[in-house]
Amino acid sequence: MDRSPPPMSLLLSTAVGAASAAGGVLGLAWYASDQINPIPRRVFKDDYTFTPWELGVPFEEVELTTPDQLNLSAWWLPHPEAQSVVIGCHSHVGAKPDLLGIGTNLWRAGHHVLLFDFRGRGRSDPWPNTLASMEVSDLLTAVNYASERAPNATIGVIGFSMGAAVAILAAAQEARIAAVVADSSFTSATDVITHKMRRVLPVATEPLMALTGVLVAHRHGYHLSRVRPIDMVAHLAPRPLFVIHSTADSTTPVEHAHQLYAAAGEPRYLWLHEGSEHCGAYFADRCVYVDRVSDFFDQYLKSIE
Question: How many whole angstroms separate alpha carbon 76 and alpha carbon 146?
C-alpha cells in the first residue's frame, strides 16, 4: 500500500476547492441577506398608484412619525358612524395600495380604516427593509395614531404575509389591538427563509441559514432567530385571532397556519382556502373573503363599542 503523502498539487486543488465552496456559501448568504433586507429604490412610477378616490371612498393623506423620526405615508378613511378602526398591514415588498380592496370594503362595513406604508416602502421615508422587525414599531405607531384620531374606538388589525406576522407580534405587546386577522403569516423568519432556500438552492440550508442570520445581524441590526410569531401568538388571548391561509401556498407552507392556530388561545378561528397560492384567498373569492373578515370584525370590534 502506498503510504506516501498526497502530491502538493492535490492538496492545493483541495484547498482551492474548499475556499471556493466557502466563498460560494458566503456569496449566497450575502445575496440572501440582501433579498431579506432590500434597499428601497424609488422610481417615478411609484407615485402612479390607485387611491381610495378611484373607489369612491373619502380619505385623507396623513403622515405618521415613528419613534426614530421616520415619516410613514398613510391614508385615513373616516367613517361618519364608526366606533372602530381597522388597520391594514401589507406584505414584505408591498405597499398600502395593495390593501385598497379589503380596506375600502371594511370602510363600507362601518369601520374607520387606516392603511399605511411600512418604512422603506411606498411613499414612506427610505429605510432598509427588515423582516417583521422594525415594522412592528411602525404598526405600533399606526395604533397610536388611530387611538388619537378616534379615542373611543376599538382597534383591529388585518395583515398579509409579513404584515400578518407583524400584526401578531405587535398585538402580543399592545393590548389596544382588540382583534387580529392574520392572512398567510409565517411561524418564524427562520422557518420561512429556510423553506425558500430548500426550494431554490442545491446546497445544505442549515449552514447557509446560520451564516445569513449572522450577516443580517451585522448588516441590519436585528436577529432573524428572534422574529418568531409562533412564540408570541398565545399572548393575544383572550383577544380573538382569525388565521387565513391557502393550502397551495408555496411561499409560506400551510403547516405554518396549523402551527399558529394550535399555539393560539381562544377565541381562535382557522380558514384554509383550498388550492390558492400565497395570499390568494381574497382574489379567489372576494365576496366570501370580505364577508368573513367583516363578520369577524363586526363580532369582536362592534360588539364592545
Answer: 9
Closest by Cα among 101, 146, 96 to 283: 101
Cβ atoms 115, 96 nearer than 8 A: yes
CA nearest to 131, candidates 55, 229, 202: 229
- For residue 7, whether the previous peptide bond is cis, meaning omega lies within 30 degrees of 0, is no
pLDDT digits (tens, 9 = 90+) for 165-177: 999 999 999 999 9
pTM: 0.90
Task: List b or e across 69-95, with b for residues whose CB sees 16 or more CB atoms inside 10 angstroms.
Answer: ebebbbbbbbbeebbbbbbbbbbbebb
Q: Apex CA 134: angle with CA 131 and CA 137, to 5°?
A: 135
Query: How far is residue 18's CA from residue 26's CA, in Å, rounded to a whole number?
Result: 12
Q: How many CB atoms lie within 10 A of CB 257?
A: 26
Apex 129 CA angle, 230 and 70, nearest 5: 110
Q: Residue 116 in contact with residue 61, Cβ under 8 Å? A: no
Alpha carbon distance 31, 183 (integer Å)? 27
Q: How far is 106 from 112, CA to CA, in rounded Å?
A: 8
Kind plus residue range of the DSSP H or E element containing 156? strand 154-160
| 275-304 per-position pLDDT tens digit | 999 999 999 999 999 999 999 999 999 865
What domains, with CATH codes, occur in the chain? 51-192+228-304 (3.40.50.1820)
